[in-house]
Amino acid sequence: MKKVLFLIGLFLFIFCVSGIANAVPIPNSDFETGNLGFSSDYEFFTQPGTPANSYSNPKASLYDEGTYGVGTDPSLYHQFWSSFGDHTTGTGNMMIVNGATSSAPAQVWGSPVSPVTIDVVDGTTYYFSAWLASLYPGLNNPPISPAALAFSINGTQIGTDFTLTAPVGTWELFYVPWVATGDTATLSLINKNFVVSGNDFALDDISMSESNPVPEPTTMLLLGTGLIGLAGVRRKFKK
Fold this sequence. Notes:
The structure is a single chain. The protein is α+β, with helices and mostly antiparallel strands. It folds into two domains: 1-22 and 215-239; 26-210, Galactose-binding domain-like (Jelly Rolls). The protein has helices at residues 2-21, 217-238, and strands at residues 23-24, 43-44, 67-71, 94-98, 107-111, 118-119, 125-134, 148-153, 156-163, 172-179, 184-185, 187-191, 200-209. Strand 8 (148-153) and strand 9 form a beta hairpin. Helix 1 (2-21) packs antiparallel against helix 2 (217-238). It is globular, with a radius of gyration of 20 Å.
């Protein structure tokens, strides 16, 4: 029986890490090293030690549009934003954003920072993905004027605009396929919503991988069939 359990565990491990093995390294893709390894057209502010409850002069929070921070709790930056954890561990960092109201600061997040490059293989299909969550109004409520964003690679938008639809505080995965046309890639996330009220969101766990971040139905079927087969073997051993 121990051998069967080992095989089940090994099967699940291989399935889970298969996508990671084909991932292209992106500096600080989970924001755990703070405000490093990426660029933004937005203005950065450090996370306040106590919750911010108003505009301040000089600025010290994210009450102004076109600003961002890297922290553990959106509610520390703005009293009307919900409190929830990052996508990676629930206790780490995320990028926290107050969307801009004009198209001038269009790039919310961009990587890499020169002279670092993201190396890819020409002609290979990659999936550019990110996890996002709305911040306003209250937790689990429908977002007000949710963020609308787009992926861009080498200065060209890839795919169509996408809008956050999940309840506030719920992480959503967005991704787009891209076929490399060279050996390097510059990635960007572009703001497409310029409304003042709402348009507040968190960003985490950005990825570029050869594996589809959402497994195809056939892949899931194979996983399920394998687990059923292994379970049958386990029952046989127990008889």
